[in-house]
Amino acid sequence: MLLRRGEAGFRVTRKTSKSFDKFETREQLYAYARAYLTRSLKRTERALVVLDAGDRKLVGKSASGLEARWWDREESLARPVIQHVIEKGEARLVVDSRKDPIFAGGKGPLSVLCVPVTGGSGRVIGFLYADNKLNEGTFNQLDLDLTKKFAQEFSLKLQELPETQPPEPEQTPEAPPEKPPEPVPAPQQPVDLSRALVTAMVLVAVILVVAISLLFFGSPAGQEVENATPADAAKGFVAMSLERNLEGAYSLLSDGMRKNRPREKFELAMEEWLMIKENEAELRSRKVVLVRSGPSSGTVYLEPSAKNKPSWEWILVREKGGWRLDHLTGGPKL
Fold it and tell me: For the segment 119-172, what is each residue's pLDDT rounded down to a tens digit?
C-alpha cells in the first residue's frame, strides 16, 4: 500500500511529555506504541504500528496478534478504515462494523480504532491501529481521543530520534600476492560405508534409550527444578528477564499469576519496564536473599546495593513444577 498526502493532520509544536523521554531508539518507541495499543486499550485483539519507510511505502514496525512485516497481506484487517485514515488524515472509530457505512456491506473486524501518525509538515506518515474481530463496542470515543493525543506525542518523539543506520559495507582488502601452488594431497582412502552405517545405528539406539528413560523417569533438570529453593526460582526469573528470555521468565510465574496475566501482556509489560535503563540496572545489581522457605510458600528479598533503597519482597509458592513467583512487592510492575 502506497502512502498518500493527507488532507488534514495534526500540527503539534509543543514538547513531548516525560513518558516519552526514556526512549533512545525508534525500536523502543515502536514497542512502546504497541504496548499502549494492547494495554491502555484493554480489549484489543490485534495492534499494529505502521510507518512510511522513506519511499512512501508503508512498513509494519511493531504488532501484536499478527506479523508486523506481513501486515499488508492480512486480508482480515479493516482495509476501508486504514485507507480512510491514510487518505483523509482523520482518525476513525468503528463501534460495530455491521452497522458502519464505511464497510458498505463488506465484512471486517467488529470493532476498529485507527489514528494517523503525522510528520512535522502535517503529512500522514503512518498510523496506529487496533481491532477486535469478534466483539462490537470494544472502543469508545474516549479511547479515540486518548489515542489521538498519544499519536501526537509519538510523532514528536519520532522526529527527535534518528533512524537506525545500516552497517557500512566492509572494504574489500587488497588481494594478497599470489602464492606458489600447493602440492596436491595424496588421495584419501575410500570411506567404509558399512562401518559408518554401524556407527549411525549405535547412535540412534543410544538416543532412543535416553529418550525412553526421560519419558518414564523424568529429566535431571526437571528434578532440579522440583527441588530448587525459592531463591533459585527468583534468581532464574531475574536472569531470564535480563536476557530478554521473557517466555522462560513467564514460566516461573505461579498458576494464579499466569491466569490473570496472559503471556503476551506479561511480555509487553516486561519489555516496557526493562526499556528504562535505571530499572534494568537496578534489577541487575540486586542480590537475592532467601528469607523463608516453608512446605508450600517462601519469601525472598532482593537487596539493593545502596543502603538508602528499600528491599523488594517477592513471595513464591511451591507448585507441581517447583517454586513459582506469586506476588512481587517491588520490581517489575506486573
Answer: 888 899 999 999 999 999 999 999 999 999 999 999 999 988 877 654 444 454
Q: Are strands 287-293 and 111-118 parallel, antiparallel or unpaired?
A: unpaired
The count of domains in the chain is 2
Report the DSSP beta bridge partners of residue 126: 51, 117
Query: Is residue 65 one of the residues assigned to a domain?
Result: yes
Instruction: Give CA–CA dist 152/126, Å, rounded.
Output: 12
Angle formed by the axes of helices 26-39 and 141-160, nearest 10°: 170
Contacts 24+ apart (CB under 8 A), 246-255: 246/270, 246/271, 252/324, 252/325, 253/324, 253/325, 253/326, 254/316, 254/317, 254/319, 254/324, 254/325, 254/326, 255/319, 255/324
Range of the domain at 317: 223-329
**Per the structure block, which three cell numbers stand in for 248?**
522462560
pLDDT surpassing 80 at residue 220:
no
Residue 269 has pLDDT above 60, yes or no: yes
The verdict on residue 99 lying in a domain is yes
Query: C-alpha grid cell for residue 75?
Result: 486480508
pTM score above 0.90: no
Answer whether residue 331 shows pLDDT above 70. yes
- Whole-number Å distance between alpha carbons of 312 and 289: 10
User: From CA 74, how far away is CA 94, in angstroms rounded?
Assistant: 19
186 in a domain, yes or no? no
